[in-house]
Amino acid sequence: MDTDGEDFYAGNSDDDQEDHCTDGEDFFTGDSDDDQAYHDHDAGIEEEDIVCKPRDYITLTQPDIRRRMEDDVERVCAVLSVSKTEASTLLIHHNWNVSRVNDAWFADEGIREKVGLFERPVINSSESGDLIDCGICFESHPQRRIVTASCGHPYCTDCWRSYVSNAINDGPGCLILKCPHPSRCSAAVGRDMIDALATDGEREKYAQYLINSYVEGNKENTKWCPAPGCECAINFLQGENFDVSCQFSHLFCWNCTEEAHRPLDCKTVQKWMLKNSSESENMTYVLAFTKPCPKCRRPIEKNQGCNHMTCRQPCGHEFCWICLGDWKNHMCNRYAKQDEDRKREMAKEYLERYTHYFERWANNEKSMKQALDDLKKVQESQLEKLADVQCRTEISLNFLTDAWKQIVECRRILKWTYAYGYYLPEEEKTKRRLFEHLQGQAESELERLHYCAERELEPFLSTEGLSTEFLSFQHKLSGLTSVTKNYFEKMVTALENGLSDVHSSSTPSPSLPSNSDTFFESKRPRKKAKIEEQVNERIEGQRIDGLIFGTDLWSCRRCTYINESHAQVCQVCGTGPWSCDNCTYASNPRTATVCEMCSRPMDQGQRLDG
Predict the structure, then answer these.
(1) SS3 per-residue string spanning 377-406
(2) To the nearest whole percent, how much of the chain has pLDDT over 90?
(3) Residue burial 205-215, b: 16+ Cβ < 10 Å; e: rest
(4) Domain extents for the chain?
(5) For residue 32, is pLDDT > 60?
(6) What's the mean pLDDT in 420-441?
(7) Taking every annotated instance into account, which residue ranges of this chain make up the domain RING-type (predicted)?
(8) What contacts 281, CB < 8 A, 6 or more positions away?
């Protein structure tokens, strides 16, 4: 039975936090005192990864910004011998730049008149009972009810209140409010008059306008946190890493104010977000999965099996879905190379490739948000419960929140690696293989940390009393947190450098290890029975491992923890670099030449894991 083609469109209807290490909350907070002894001997992580690194920025709360504004006002008052109101007016007109105010003051004799600061005249009255006419309502008022700016134009308090109120409610233009005289008087209405005439709510609004103007005036190094409802600002000091975090752990890129997106640059992030939100991908779908009616060119989607298509009225054209020929005389068995078919296939491949990366980008974003919820649950309920059960202080359990913060950060990085992969040229095959290997390894490391923080914690939350295994769990989770952080930092650096080390090897790149087990196995000597291809994988694994971790590390075969070369046994599970074939003792130190258990010398048949 003939099937009508479905019309595609018819179916869719306190003080500034100068201590950079303690400024706000960070995803990489320091270790607790209970963890320090463990980490001091953590051979897998360098000291710089354990100690909190100085930040390149300072988080500013609203009180912090007010204090900075007051400090600037005091500095101007001290140098120029002016009132606070006049100092504020000068700073507003010069974008809160103290140096610029001082330079303009001494270089330009007319600076006071330009900003509206005149010598306030004295209103004379022969008797205290004399009345003065208001220039707005034209009514006569006693002098005590008359207010003037520095120009001396008299208006009654009621008219002034109305004028000030309207100006504040109209927006931040009230910061440069002038006298209402119809001659376009330039006399400034300063903060002293605002405080005297405005209501409490209006004064608060005016103060917020001042804070906003301060941040805007210092926009070269200060920006608001873009998170909805957040009132923190970031004062960026220096550095190449633009990832910053406010007091409430809202992480974003200071340069473009988008979500933190390492290892991707801001320009590529903009392209990726535009692609995700634009209608261009919808048109790609139309091109890939629909065909135009040969007569009216309206897109038609095939929703059943028959190839006999009938376009909807008023067109009504009947055609073959395969060759788009007229149904009455089409010949599908004749070969004719069609440009439209090639375009359609290319569009389909393009859409499938985009979908692959977008789905994984979106899934990691979802996982990141879930990890944020889990972090909040740990902070609000689990820490208190665990402290009671294990007889610990909540501060000593910071390693748990550190782990979850690291999970959130790693999910964010992993998410953006998929956008990175989308824009990595297909023709750079060696870089793509290395990138996919590093990405797969990162996923394995993160899953191991996530499993430990989530699943292995559960027994300690449900137990009735103190558990003797909790300290081991703490050491393991702290170690995994440090290892995962170290790996992701090295990977991000490699990706930001464009995987430039790929070109340093003159040896053709064989196939790369596909998972973490083969990655770490590739660092170990193979038995002679192994085939040559596996030896090549080991060599390539060593080269890649050198790019990321350096050459002074070895991996434990049991837990894959990365130890430094001087470590005799694994710092997480205690496994040694080699095991004895005679007694199967697996914790022989790296430098031992005989088994510590049975004293049998190490020979070529024994497994080496260094």
Answers:
(1) HHHHHHHHHHHHHHCCCCHHHHHHHHHHHH
(2) 27
(3) bbbebbbebbb
(4) 120-198, 358-575
(5) no
(6) 89
(7) 130-336, 134-180
(8) 275, 351, 354
What CA–CA distance (Å, rounded) separates 242 from 267?
Answer: 14
The reply to whether the predicted model has a pTM over 0.70 is no
Given this model, what pLDDT does residue 599 score? 75
Percentages of the chain per state (helix, strand, coil), in multiples of 5: 50, 10, 45
What confidence tens digit (pLDDT) does each residue in 189-222 have? 999 999 999 999 999 999 999 999 999 998 888 9
Instruction: Tell me the pLDDT band of 385, cut-offs 50, 70 and 90.
Output: confident
Q: Is 441 a residue whose pLDDT tops 50?
A: yes
Nearest to 137 by CA among 151, 120, 154: 154
**Coil, strand or helix: which one is 251?**
strand
Helix (H) or strand (E) holding 407: helix 398-423
Mean residue pLDDT across the chain = 75
Backbone angles phi, psi at 326, to 5 degrees: -60, 135
The residues annotated as belonging to the active site are 306
Tokens of 75: 């500095």
Residue the block writes with tokens 């009671």:
388
Given this structure, which CATH class describes domain 120-198?
Answer: alpha beta
Residues 147/166, Cβ–Cβ less than 8 Å: no
Q: Could you count the other beta carbons within 10 Å of the beta carbon of residue 224?
A: 18
pLDDT at residue number 69: 94
How many Cβ atoms are within 10 Å of 55's Cβ, its own excluded? 21
State CA 221 to chain mean position distance: 18
